[in-house]
Structure formats: structure tokens, C-alpha cells
Amino acid sequence: MINWNLCDTVLLDMDGTLLDLNFDNHFWCEFVPLKYAERNKLSLMKAKQILQPKFKQMEGKLEWYCLDYWTQVLELDIAGLKTEIAELITVLPHVVEFLERLKDAKKQVFLVTNAHQDSLNLKMEKTCLQPFFDAIICSHNFGAAKENLAFWTQLQQQYSFDKQRTLMIDDSLAVLDTAKRFGITYLITISKPDSKKPVKMDTYYPAIKDFSELLIE
Ligand SMILES: [Mg+2]
């Protein structure tokens, strides 16, 4: 799938790529509506009806990933709620093996995420993946989500990598589209970002179901 001799930097998304998206899906689609319903004395169904358009409106924007934004808008302690169900944070199959092989092969590995710093910290604490990365880049620090070209130009200014020898793996097609426009040569997506959901068929990038398909020999 990849000629590793032609690739020396790997950019990895976190949620839905390295970590099971089931945590985030469950958190936003079930747990937050439940807490919102309790707080506002609504039925769960009503809470979902109110929240869904609010979430939809922010998709792909930096606010969507911002815990402070949702804490304010929903009047719920979003970071606190995340820790309540933190046991659902899990690493997807063969991720650790994949990261070990990258390290052995001396590839430069960056974690590149839209996740908010608090969310990132909680997930690194739960999964212990941090030592595998040469850098952890949070798009909030650039003021632009990965879906925005401004993210990529800033990334290139601050970190040294050759985009023609770089692989980006992300479960978001919108992010890969922007990475492609920026000029990243190798792009791969994840067809099973959520362990509890069926394999996604709508990908127009090369896709892996899990990292066993991409291990360096
Ligand atoms: Mg993702």
C-alpha cells in the first residue's frame, strides 16, 4: 500500500484513526443529550432534537472541537463529563504495533489533531501513546482546523517535513481533501473508525480497516 522507502514522515489523526471513535460518538450522541435532558428537565428524545442541529451547525469548525465553547453553550461541564466515561477511551486494533514499527524504522511521527487540549490530555493519559510521537500538534494552537488550508501552511512553517515524502492518515475525508490540496502525497483513510459501527464504504481514498494492513515489514 505504501512504499516506505519513499516516505519518512507520518501524520496521524487521533480520534477515529488511532482511537476508537465509539467514545466520541457515544459521548456526543448519548451521554451529553442525557445530561442535557437531566439538567433542563426534558425527555432524552427532546434533548437530542435540540442538540442535533446545534452540533450540525458547527461541523468542521474549530468550535466543534472546543470544550470551552460547548461548556458555555450547553451549560454543562463537558471536560468533567468526558472523564466520567473515560473508560470508553480505547486504542484501535494494531495501532501500538504500527507505532512501534514506525519508531523502529526511524520515521518522523506527528500526532495532528483537532481535539481540544483537555480532550487530548485525557486521551494521552488513558492510552499512554504520547512517547510514540515526535510532536503533538493541536489545531487550536494555529487557530484553524485541519479542514482549513491555513492549518497546513502554519504546520509547514513550524515543523520540518517534506510533503512529497509524507503520509497522512485520517478518518475524515474533508481533512484529507485539504491535506491533498496542500500537497501531501500519500493519503490513507480508515474504513472502521468506530468499532461499534459497520465499515464505511463511501471513501474515495485508499482505506484500511485496521493498522495490520499497514505494518512496516
Ligand atoms: Mg478523526
Compile the SSE list and pairings:
Blueprint: E1 9-12, H1 22-40, H2 44-58, H3 67-74, H4 78-84, H5 95-104, E2 108-113, H6 117-127, E3 135-138, H7 149-158, E4 166-169, H8 173-182, E5 186-190, E6 207-208
Parallel strand pairs: 1-2, 1-4, 2-3, 4-5, 5-6
The structure holds magnesium ion (MG).
If you had to describe this structure to a student in words, what would you say it looks like?
There is one protein chain. This protein is of the alpha/beta class and 217 residues long. The protein folds into 2 domains: 4-20 and 90-214, HAD superfamily/HAD-like (Rossmann fold, 3-Layer(aba) Sandwich), CATH 3.40.50.1000; 23-87, no CATH class. Helix content is 41%, strand content 12%. The chain has a 6-stranded parallel sheet with strand order 3-2-1-4-5-6, covered by helices on one side. Bound molecules: magnesium ion.
Q: What is shown here, in short?
A:
This protein is of the alpha/beta class.
Coarse morphology: globular
CATH superfamily of the largest domain: HAD superfamily/HAD-like
Coarse structural class:
alpha/beta
Q: What's the count of strands? A: 6
**Top-tier CATH class of the largest domain:** Alpha Beta
Listing every helix as H and every strand as E from the N terminus to the C terminus, the arrangement reads EHHHHHEHEHEHEE
Helical content band: 40-55%
Please name the CATH architecture of the largest domain: 3-Layer(aba) Sandwich
Summed over residues and divided by their number, the pLDDT gives a mean of 96
Content of β-strand: 5-15%
Query: How many helical stretches?
Result: 8
How many structural domains in the coordinates? 2
Model regions low in confidence, pLDDT < 50 over at least 5 residues: none
Compute the gyration radius: what is it?
Answer: 18 Å
Please state how the strands of the largest beta sheet are arranged side by side: 3-2-1-4-5-6
Q: How would you characterize the largest beta sheet?
A: 6 strands, parallel
Straight-line distance between termini = 12 Å
Question: At the third CATH level, what is the topology name of the largest domain?
Answer: Rossmann fold
Question: What is bound: which ligands?
Answer: magnesium ion
